[in-house]
Amino acid sequence: MNKVMNRAAAQPRPRHRPPNRRDSRRPGGAPPRTPSRPAAALTVPQGPPVGPVPTVRPPRPTDLFADRLLAVLSGQRPVHWMLRHTAGRAYDDLARLAEHSPLRTLGPRPVVHDIGYYVPSEGALEVFARVSAGDRFRALAFRLERGKDLRWRCTAVETGPR
């Protein structure tokens, strides 16, 4: 038995959109965008810069880790979110601290107000931060060590007494 199927006859046109409509998300489907400003306004002057050019520095590891730890200890993020950013017993300490959510507040979110650090040796930072949790300030301390892969990892974390 030989079956012959004609593709055009076997499959009717899709009924989920009109036959003349094209998908605008595909390349060439949308018309080219025109700038809202004239081309003269988009040109950059060719003279030397008048003042100092501000440079955007990447955030420091102390600031990044303070924000990450604050998110976990206030209950905004789960503990396993910090798994690849911790080393040694720090993850266990963080899990123990996060059970009680010491920085959780009923009002506005906790905010890091001040960060300081001490460099005990090359590739290590001991960081302390003041966190406002509600109407009170709390202390957060952690240690960062740079690994052989040049990534910073948290190796110890503590919060102030309740």
Report what the structure shows:
The chain has 162 residues and is an alpha+beta fold. The protein contains 4 helices and 4 strands; from the N terminus they run ααααββββ. It has helices spanning 7-10, 39-42, 61-73, 90-100, and strands spanning 111-121, 124-133, 136-146, 152-159. Strands 1-2-3-4 form a 4-stranded antiparallel β-sheet. Strand 2 (124-133) and strand 3 (136-146) form a beta hairpin. The protein is extended.
Q: What's the CATH class label of one domain? A: Alpha Beta
CATH topology term of one domain: Nuclear Transport Factor 2, Chain: A
**Distance between the first and last residues' Cα:** 83 Å
Please state roughly what percent of the residues sit in beta strands, choosing from under 5%, 5-15%, 15-25%, 25-35%, 35-45% or over 45%.
15-25%
Round the mean pLDDT to the nearest integer and report it: 79
- What is the name of the CATH architecture of one domain? Roll
Low-confidence stretches: none
- Pattern of helices and strands: HHHHEEEE
- Trace the largest sheet across and list its strands: 1-2-3-4
> In which range does the helix fraction lie?
10-25%
Shape label: extended
Number of helices: 4
Q: Tell me the total number of β-strands.
A: 4
Radius of gyration: 28 Å
Which class of secondary structure composition applies to the elements? alpha+beta
Q: Sheet with the most strands?
A: 4 strands, antiparallel
